[in-house]
Amino acid sequence: MKLHRMLNHAFRSATALMASFALLAAPAAGAEVSYPTRPGRLIVPFGAGAATDIIARMVAARFSEHWGQQLVIDNRAGSGGIVGTEIAARAAPDGYTIFVYGINQTITPALYSKLSYDPLRDFTLISLYGTLPNVLVVHPSVQAKSVNEFIALARANPGKLQYVSSGIGASPHLTMELLKTTAKIDLLHVPYKVAAQGITDLIGGQMQAMFSNLPSQVGNIKAGRLRPLAVTAAKRAGQIPDVPTMIESGFPGFEVTVWQGFAVPVKTPQAIVDRIHTAMTKALSAPDLQQRLFDQGFTAVSTTPAEFLAFAKSERARWAKVVKDSGTAIE
To answer: Of the four, 101, 148, 185, 314, which is 20 to 30 A from 84 by CA?
Structure first.
């Protein structure tokens, strides 16, 4: 099921939303009325100041108001999110450890042959809270003002155009690999350990192109430092409404959504899962939070645990194919 269809379904059901609110006031049978009785922690598998961290802090602050206790940010960066994911998977399933579960958790199983955890088996997914597209940008010197012109240029210069990424296996890298296999073009990949340095070199003209998370590029696009060719969402991004989608550019089904949500260690009691989900639903319905997320390039969303799990499974299968087709491997 495509994400936008899932989200449309989730938001159409006003009855389900009101039922979730009711659950906050009246926990499910068997729930401990006293939960939560102390602060909890939100494990973010990336460093402070990263896009994931910034958005997680916004959501956590509003979530805490409805959850009844403070949710303290615990940054556990390392190995593309693996370090934090492992810590979260091994945490006590008592409802006091929540994890920022995102697109990386569905990519890493295809990249690494040995993981000490399984991102689907070892977590109970609660709800998505934000999505954003990637955007294809080029340096203004590149003689391409559309995706098709970019592809024609790449075909005329096989292996010569250099594209930046924030690291092997990250969604911007694999999005470009998806374009390469779809359009049958040859580009030179230049991964950077620090995404900001790669963007600096792209702006400076040393590199020619990249797919990037939208929030990182809105300012550069509006200032004319980079030229946008397309976004990877099903619909145009409200922050740059004049930029077409990849689908509009002639690539049916080319939809890449970068996403984040909450998860807890598996075996967390269902009553606690319900309580966390209800607090999330109410937090995400706040117009001011929705606007703050939008200003950062995100779209606030809410799903049921079942919808989140189905989506994560589909994403895992999809990225496994992209990794296989592109020949990308880390070990």
So the answer is: 314
Same domain membership, residue 176 and residue 115: no
Asked whether residue 250 is domain-assigned, the answer is no
Q: How far is CA 257 from CA 160, 185, 210, in A?
A: 28, 22, 16
For 230, phi and psi rounded to 5 degrees?
-170, 155
- Residue range(s) defining the domain that contains residue 169: 133-231
Contact call for residues 149 and 225 (beta carbons, < 8 A): no
Task: Judge whether 72 lies within some domain.
Answer: yes
- Are 89 and 151 part of one and the same domain? no
- Amino acid residing at 176: M
Residue with tokens 């099903």: 234
288: number of Cβ within 10 Å: 8
Which phi and psi (to 5°) does residue 195 adopt?
-60, -35
Q: Examine residue 240 and state whether it is found in any structural domain, yes or no.
A: no
Return d(Cα 36, Cα 250) in angstroms, integer. Answer: 50
> What is the reported pLDDT for 91?
98
DSSP secondary structure code for residue 27 in this structure: P
Strands 40-44 and 162-165: unpaired
User: How many domains are contained in the chain?
Assistant: 2
* 304 within 8 A of 127, measured Cβ to Cβ: yes
50 and 71 part of one domain: yes
Distance CA 234, CA 104 (A): 20
State whether 109 and 178 are in the same domain: no
Dist CA 156 CA 74 (whole Å): 48
DSSP H helices in 204-302: 218-222, 270-284, 287-295
- Tell me the CA distances in angstroms from 295 to 54, 132, 161, 214, one per residue in order: 12, 11, 32, 11
Series of mean pLDDT values for 10-residue runs along the chain (331 residues): 50 40 42 81 87 90 97 88 94 98 93 91 97 95 97 97 86 91 94 82 96 88 96 92 97 92 97 97 96 88 96 94 82 57
CB 165 within 8 A of CB 190: yes
